[in-house]
Every structure is written in structure tokens, then in C-alpha cells.
Amino acid sequence: MTNSPTALDDPFTGRVVVITGAGRGIGAATARAFAAAGVHTVLASRDEAALHSLRDEITDGGGSAHAVPTDVTDETAVGRLVEAAVGRFGRLDMAVNNAAAHGGRPVPLAAMSTRQFDTTISVTLRGVFLCLRHEIAAMTAGGSIVNVASTAADQGVAGLADYVTAKHGVIGLTRTAALDHAADGIRINAVLPGPIHTDGLERAGAQARAGVARTLPLRRLGQPAEVAQAILWLCSPAADFVTGAGLPIDGGRLAGTPSFAEQRTDNP
What fold is seen in the domain 13-266? Predict the structure, then answer.
């Protein structure tokens, strides 16, 4: 698709985006970034208080936001979310599927409960599938979807069999959906955030954060706003030739193993 100079100069004003998992962290940062770009944001989360707080923050700042409390494991609720976006704003141009869950503290696979595994898969993988189905159906004039995966989608992580499996599946869904719907003018990509300074790492404390940062080539944690800007770019005309891609935002984590000399210096 060829974009006019006007579209490139102002690609977002008046467009509509649905963002799941918008209550905090990467989802909330993404909502702020889209709203600042002039997009009508439709915010979804199970945490109604956080959702309404973010909506008020965006609207008080002059942006456009509509909150729709949603459980992405409930297909009827997902359908209502997309219908609410189209009903309120008349269209759906973009979507960011960020809602995810995992069991918390790492546990070896043989000790992981079936309930924990099923819960994570239901939210983190099946939820993306349900969202994709309804979002794609609503994008009658084409559009762009970004699924939020993780560096755990590209490597194993001990003790997180549920989360790793789900995020690997998100990449599979992204690639397949991109192939299935390219001819419909819908681009579907994923981002793979590495260690990002969200609530989990905040609760872990400064010492734990510093330890994680030392393992990364860039020697610092990522910020939610940095992931949000990558998502914004993937939804922009600048990324019109990008679909089926997985973009790491990880401080170099997936690039490979740091030099042994470097590891000895940092970890005597």
C-alpha cells in the first residue's frame, strides 16, 4: 500500500485502537503513546479500577479513551469489546493484544499443577487467538495488529513451562495470522520484550533489578514506554512492509552470549 505524504505526516489522528491488558505496565504505556498520537483508545483489562484510572488520566490530558472491562478468556466478552470500539468510534484500525498471565514464582515442570498451566494458556495464548478472530473480522478496511510476546517466545526459561509455552504459541499465531490475512490488508506482528521495569521487577527490589540489568548487553532494564514506541512504529505507515515479524526489545538479550571476558568482569 502506498501512503500519501499527508498520511505519513499524520498517520494516527482519528484512528481507533483496542488495547488489552491496558491496566498497567506495557499496556498502559502503549495506551498513553497512542492517545498522545491522536488515536481513540479502547482500553481493556480485568482490573476495572486501574482501567478507569488510566481512562481518566488520558481524557484529563486531552486524549480519547474508552474503558471496557474485559476478560480475554471469555469469547463473549472479547466480542463485546470489539463491538464497543466499532459502536463508539465507527471503525477499528489497530489492536494491541497484551493481556497475559503466568503462575508467578518459577516451579519445575513436574511440580507445576495442571490448573496453573491451563490458566496461563487460557489467558496468554487462547486469549490472543480470541482477540485476533474478532479484531480481524472488524477491520474491514485493513489494519495493523501487534501481539505482545516475550523473549520467552524465543528461548526456554527454567521454571516457566506454562508461560514459555504460551508465548511460543503467540509467535506461531502471529506468523500464521499474518499469512492468512495479508491479502485483506491487515498486518500482524509481535514484539518480544525482555526485562522491562514493570510492577514485577519493581516489587523484586533494587538489588534484583541491578542483577538482571547486569545480564543484558545494554546493562539496563527496558522501560514500558520504549516497548510502546516500538508498537506504535509497527502500527504506523513506516512499517507498511512489515508483517509476520517478531521484534525483540530486550537490550540485546536474544543476540547471543556475551564474551567470557565480559562475564568475568561483571561476575567475578
Answer: Rossmann fold (3.40.50)
Task: Evaluate if pTM is beyond 0.85.
Answer: yes
User: What's the confidence (pLDDT) of residue 224?
Assistant: 95
Of the candidates 23, 26, 33, the residue with the CA atom closest to the CA atom of residue 201 = 26
163 is catalytic: yes
Q: Read off the C-alpha cell for 176.
A: 500464521
Angle between helices 48-60 and 25-36 (to 10 degrees): 20
Q: Which residue among the candidates 12, 34, 89, 163 is catalytic per the annotation?
A: 163
> Chain-centre distance of CA 255, in angstroms?
21
| Nearest-angstrom CA–CA distance, 133 and 92 | 13
Q: Are 262 and 219 in contact (CB under 8 A)?
A: no
pLDDT-derived band at 47 (thresholds 50, 70, 90) equals very high
223: pLDDT strictly greater than 60: yes
Kindly report the backbone phi and psi dihedral angles of residue 87, in degrees, each rounded to the nearest multiple of 5, phi listed first.
-65, -35
Note the pLDDT of residue 205. Answer: 82
